[in-house]
Design a protein that fits this description.
This protein is of the alpha+beta class. It contains 15 helices and twelve strands. It has helices at 24-27, 35-38, 55-66, 74-78, 83-102, 105-114, 122-136, 143-149, 170-176, 182-191, 208-213, 246-262, 287-297, 304-307, 350-354; strands at residues 12-13, 31-32, 156-161, 164-169, 222-223, 227-233, 236-241, 266-271, 281-284, 310-318, 333-338, 344-345.
């Protein structure tokens, strides 16, 4: 499956039991899936009806649209004539039953990522994360934070030019580019070029209201540049943190993500570099960043091209050292964000849930 669809309508706070090692107040904020979570998945290309769909498939599809949680007998599934469609329905039904059995989207997600490798179609996983993110980062958050939250479940295209780091939604960037060359599209935005790039504005204070009213919530570019350097002459440079930094917005989103799942209060702030001789713990927010930070921690020096892929660093501090493993209590946790060699970014938000030095995991 290659695309995702979901709707946060019909979600309610979970009321079923969950693992006892998590605080009840945390679990009370988790989401039990309603029909409107599953229903949009039936519109995916792999599950949508086509002209050649047999009558048995049409009846099954219509029943699921009316009641996505309805029971489906093995004979009813076996009656679907097309083998690929039959398999796709079986995958969907297994996913649906697993989510319902878990009692909440969060409990399902934690089970899924702890039992790696993940054997669920990516659109289903992204739909789970998207629904949770919309619950955690709601309308009370800024437009920048809501755009940054999309990084947790939507792959991005990245461009770096003249110290600026811009990211555009992969699908929207390719759609907006006549040549489907998303990297070139974002570079056009950086240099202010005309052409297809004009269709994806960079989100900022001036157009935040446009983001709220946009038909396509993924059609804005996020500027991840955190600081502005002004040359004062005579070898002097004044550096000022940007008030509309996408990195700061992403940091706020990650704080909420951690608190929602783990009930742990943290402070995350962007960094320009890690200058810590007592560096003890780090977490990569994606596969590339994990590899780079591991090399740097071991004292190895990645080549220049690989280092250029590191587009963001953060320092995470726990509000209470008692919530950390005793051997690293009070120490900062460093986070890294990196693009791939193809200048794409696929965040792995589960890394923050699995790899923080929590006292319970010692």
């Amino acid at each position: 499956m290659t695309q995702a669809g979901t709707n946060n309508g019909g979600m309610r706070e979970a009321d079923r039991s969950h693992p006892a090692d998590l605080d009840a107040q945390v679990r009370a904020r988790w989401l039990a899936p309603g029909a409107d979570f599953f229903r949009p998945m039936l519109a995916l290309d792999e599950l949508a009806l086509v002209d050649d769909s047999c009558e048995d498939e049409r009846r099954l599809h219509e029943r699921l649209v009316a009641d996505p949680a309805c029971a489906v007998a093995a004979a009813e599934l076996a009656a679907v004539a097309d083998a690929d469609a039959r398999e796709n329905y079986a995958v969907f039904l297994a996913f649906r039953d697993a989510v319902i059995d878990a009692g909440s989207l969060e409990a399902y997600y934690l089970r899924l990522v702890r039992d790696a490798p993940i054997a669920v179609p990516p659109p289903f996983v992204d739909a789970v994360v998207a629904a949770i993110v919309r619950h955690v980062v709601d309308d009370r958050c800024s437009a920048l934070e809501r755009r940054a939250a999309q990084l947790l479940h939507r792959p991005q295209r990245i461009a770096v030019r003249d110290g600026r780091v811009l990211c555009a939604d992969w699908i929207d960037a390719d759609r907006a580019s006549a040549a489907a060359a998303g990297v070139d599209l974002v570079r056009q935005l950086v240099v202010g070029g005309a052409g297809p790039g004009a269709g994806l504005p960079v989100l900022g204070a001036a157009n935040a209201h446009d983001f709220d009213r946009a038909v396509d919530p993924y059609g804005f570019v996020l500027d991840l540049s955190h600081e502005i350097a002004n040359d004062l002459g005579h070898g002097l440079t004044f550096t000022l943190a940007r008030s509309d930094s996408g990195m700061t917005a992403l940091a706020r989103v990650l704080e909420r993500w951690i608190a929602h799942f783990l009930g742990v209060s943290t402070t995350i702030r962007p960094l320009q570099r890690i200058d810590d001789p007592a560096w003890r713990w780090h977490v990569g927010l994606d596969a590339e960043a994990t590899s780079l930070l591991n090399d740097l921690y071991r004292g190895e020096t990645p080549d220049g091209e690989r280092m250029q892929r590191l587009i963001g660093l953060f320092r995470l501090d726990f509000a209470s050292a008692k919530e950390m493993r005793a051997d690293v209590a009070g120490k900062p946790v460093y986070l890294g964000l990196a693009m791939s060699a193809e200048q794409t970014l696929k965040l792995k938000p589960q890394n923050l849930l699995l790899n923080l030095p929590l006292a319970a995991s010692a």
